[in-house]
Specification:
The complex is a heterotrimer of chains A (337), B (328) and C (155). Chain B has 328 residues and is α/β, with parallel strands linked by helices. Chain B contains eleven helices and eight strands. In chain C, strands 2-1-3-4 form a four-stranded parallel beta sheet, sandwiched between helices. The N terminus of chain C is likely disordered. The chains are: A alpha+beta (337), B alpha/beta (328), C alpha/beta (155).
Chain lengths: 337, 328, 155
């Protein structure tokens, strides 16, 4: 895996060249909200951004996705294959979230061909975080602001230029194709990079006690603690929809008579309808059960199933919760710390 | 503010110790700057954690119908007295609950707090242009913000009030059991519906463009609905599946149908507390739509929401000489 | 949704002359009987309406209207008894308030005036029913096929 230098005056050309070959997605500012969207010129890239408001999961797992069309029980057309894409400017926490989604949609037992096709055809260029936000706690969640996990290429912003590090063969291939824009690293660049890594880790002030959390939650299903935690929860879907790892969905037929589409839509465990059964029975009757499910899923069930906490510490739910129900505080309360 | 806060704590302590309320809903310090968070106090000692400042934006009335609803398992309603801290707008939501018979008046202790307008966090964030806010506090009518570089920025509170506070005509709760003494400030506005009128004057295509743009931001998290004190339906039309009113896709048409349905359901009931807009993570200008209805309800039926429990809701009553012009 | 398809819900304007499709919610006691009278009196009116009988004009929920527009109606008509004639006493008075607000609201968000219309037609007004339909069809024809609020992802 190589490390190269991309001077910032060549960034535009770098992006332009990518745009010629790939569909390029990058953080953009759209109607006041930052999100990953396709760019057709380098200028569309948001000037300065940290964590985008909308996580990049929608590029692989869209809010609504037509799986196929049907007429009278016959499948007419399946979703076409995706084209080659590059996502530029992802943050390491979001890149990590994709590796978690892989476990769900490309796991041993179940495979989602739509998700897998998109993942395979996408190269991810991440940028290490030099300045974590006050709501960031990725270091508590098995990743870090400079983590390589999930990225094909990782950039370090060294001020005048980027240090470009290829992580995977896919990333290496992309770097090779743009080799003429890159120069060799100097000793001073590597020093600056180490400096950046050091400050980023120091700047990460927020944390949650994830150690032993899974075991702790094991016996807490009937704990009275949930009675208290859920009280202020409004039961909206902000935390789940803006979460980079939440992946629940619902499949519906959008059809008139016997013709239409089978559509996969995002769903949220915070919605009452999520668990309602045909009989009308709803096993998760109130916010208490729903919030417990969300916490259990992230910090217990997923650890059992995949060996990973399904929270990457991006802080989106903390920042956007309308009643300031802070997941960090919940975890602290659970761990009794 | 500080005085109001200490009076509030004292009142809360007293109500809890005398057993006049079993549960009191108020605000406490949030985990992030510029935020308070709703809190549910049932112990006298916890009253000391209550706060009152310019960040008490949440409309706590949103919790009331749920608290008084029978337990879905036992189908029994727990007997309890609930105290609630309300600003003018929150109180008008409570008036709506009383009018619609969602909350038993005898089990409710309304603690009114005169309001001087609340801060719109989003406006401050926008002003700081991407700088991270580390700390914030209120001092002599100013908001003191510290950014990530440790730089102190002083902001005049008046410039960062929520839009709903800027057109508020009821800073003092119209209905209360206890009124905390304190000053209020009402913003003098030449025309409270200026924003609505500006849109009304645009062409139909421009209005559609506006509506489309706002709706395009929606992620269907339903925060607007869940933050709204009036959206207390146990089952929302958006979630009904037999018949299914609205699809759950992100098709603009489905998104619009949801918002139109929800907003129209608040017609003649919405008190413009601004909770929907404040809760929206995507910054949809929902109040432009809700205020259009408030304006029309006033114009057509001469009705103001949330001031009287007795007056019948405008859409549940009629006059023989109501506007008939638009009907063939 | 990722794939967008043209709205084929109504008659396709490109293939033959486009005909507006109008959903008419008629109250059982007056307007529906008015339509009946128009029929048995052999009064001609445009065949563009699809009638949905409702017990009362106030039964019509704004969502019925929105849903009609979503799923292929080019126009919607709600018709009930004249004020004072409501079978249930006051249903049409309540409907009048609701629709006064709704009409303004729909126009506010950019739905063309004329797409959604209201009328009072009594059981004795077969002639009026026919002329209301004529007017509504003409208004909607002028506006062209509905493009706003239409759900495109599904036929």
């Amino acid at each position: 895996m190589t490390e190269k230098i991309l001077t910032k005056d060549k960034q535009e050309e770098f992006l332009s060249r990518l745009i010629k070959v790939y569909q390029v997605f990058a953080p953009v500012e759209k109607e006041g909200n930052s999100l990953f969207s396709q760019i057709n010129t380098p200028e569309e890239l948001a000037e300065e951004y940290r964590n985008t408001k909308r996580p990049p999961k929608e590029l692989f797992f869209p809010h609504s996705e037509a799986l196929f069309r049907f007429r009278k029980g016959q499948v007419l057309e399946e979703n076409p294959n995706e084209v080659e894409r590059v996502i530029f400017g992802m943050r390491p926490c979001d890149a990590k979230s994709l590796t978690l989604l892989d476990m769900v949609f490309n796991g041993k037992d179940f495979k989602d061909p739509y998700f897998i096709a998109r993942r395979e055809k996408t190269t991810i260029i991440s940028i290490a975080c030099a300045r974590p936000q006050i709501t960031c706690f990725c270091t508590s969640c098995g990743t870090s602001p400079v983590s390589e996990e999930g990225s094909d290429i990782l950039l370090f912003d060294l001020g005048e230029n980027y240090l470009v590090k290829s992580i995977t063969p896919k990333g290496q291939q992309l770097i090779d194709s743009l080799g003429d824009l890159l120069t060799d690293t100097q000793e001073s660049d590597l020093k600056k990079r180490d400096e950046l890594i050091k400050t980023a880790l120091v700047e990460m002030k927020s944390e949650i006690p994830t150690e032993g959390l899974k075991e702790k939650l094991e016996g807490m299903f009937d704990s009275p603690i949930w009675e208290k935690i859920h009280l202020k929860c409004l039961g909206c879907g902000i935390c789940t929809y803006l979460c980079p790892t939440c992946h629940c969905f619902d499949i519906v037929d959008e059809a008139v008579d016997s013709e239409g589409e089978r559509v996969k839509n995002w769903d949220s465990c915070m919605y009452p309808q999520f668990t309602i059964q045909a009989s009308g029975l709803n096993p998760r009757l109130s916010n208490k059960e729903r919030l417990r499910q969300r916490m259990m899923h992230k910090f217990n069930y997923s650890v059992s199933n995949y060996g990973q906490t399904f929270c990457v510490g991006c802080g989106r739910c903390v920042r956007n919760c309308p009643v300031n129900l802070d997941i960090r505080e919940i975890v602290k309360l659970i761990s009794g710390k | 503010m500080k005085q109001i806060q200490s009076r509030l704590r004292q009142t809360a302590r007293q109500l809890l110790s005398e057993g006049k309320v079993d549960l009191l809903i108020g605000y406490r310090q949030g985990s992030l700057p510029l935020k308070t968070t709703p809190c549910f106090v049932s112990q006298e000692e916890e009253a000391v954690g209550l706060v009152w400042n310019s960040f008490c934006t949440n409309n706590l009335a949103v919790y009331l119908p749920g608290l008084f609803r029978p337990d879905p398992r036992s189908r029994k309603r727990e007997e309890k007295k609930v105290g609630i801290v309300v600003k003018g707008c929150d109180c008008r939501s409570v008036v709506g609950h009383l009018k619609e018979d969602q909350v038993p008046r005898e089990d409710l202790v309304i603690i009114g707090v005169p309001c001087q307008g609340m801060i719109d966090e989003k406006k401050i964030v926008a002003k700081l242009e991407g700088k991270e806010i580390i700390k914030a506090k209120e001092q002599d009518g100013q908001i003191l913000v510290v950014d990530e570089k440790g730089q102190e920025i002083r902001l005049a509170k008046g410039n960062f009030l929520r839009d709903s506070c800027q057109v508020c005509q009821h800073p003092v709760p119209p209905l209360y059991d206890i009124l905390i003494e304190g000053e209020t400030a009402r913003q003098a506005l030449s025309d409270e519906y200026a924003e609505v009128k500006e849109l009304e004057e645009r062409s139909i295509d421009q209005r559609w463009e506006f509506f489309q743009r706002e709706m395009s931001k929606c992620i269907r998290c339903y925060a607007c609905r869940n933050a709204c004190p009036l959206c207390y339906c146990p089952e929302c039309f958006a979630e009904q599946s037999q018949p299914r009113w609205v699809g759950t896709t992100d098709d603009p048409s489905d998104i619009m149908a949801f918002h139109l349905g929800r907003i129209f359901h608040t017609a003649g009931r919405c008190v413009d507390c601004g909770a929907c807009e404040a809760a929206c993570p995507m910054g949809i200008e929902l109040r432009k739509l809700t205020r259009k209805l408030i304006k029309d309800v006033e114009e057509l039926f001469g009705y103001e929401t949330g001031v009287s429990v007795e007056e019948p809701p405008p859409l549940a009553t009629y006059k023989l000489d109501d506007d008939d012009e638009f009907i063939k | 949704m990722e794939k967008k398809k043209p709205n084929n819900g109504g008659d396709q304007p490109q293939n033959r002359q486009w005909q507006p499709k109008i959903v008419a919610f008629l109250c059982h006691w007056c307007s529906y009987a008015g339509a009946d009278l128009a029929g048995i009196s052999r009064i001609q009116y445009p065949p563009n309406i699809r009638v949905i009988r409702v017990p009362c004009s106030s039964r019509v929920n704004p969502l019925h209207i929105i849903k009609a527009l979503q799923h292929g109606a080019d126009g919607v008509l709600v018709s009930g008894c004249h004020p004072g004639d409501c079978h249930y006493g006051s249903g049409n008075y309540l409907a009048r308030r609701k629709f006064a607000l709704l009409k303004r609201f729909l126009e506010f968000i950019g739905i063309e005036p004329g797409r959604v219309q209201f009328s009072w037609v009594s059981a004795a007004e077969g002639q009026k029913f026919a002329s209301v339909i004529e007017e509504v069809v003409e208004d909607v024809r002028k506006l062209g096929p509905a493009r706003r609020l239409v759900k495109n992802s599904v036929k």
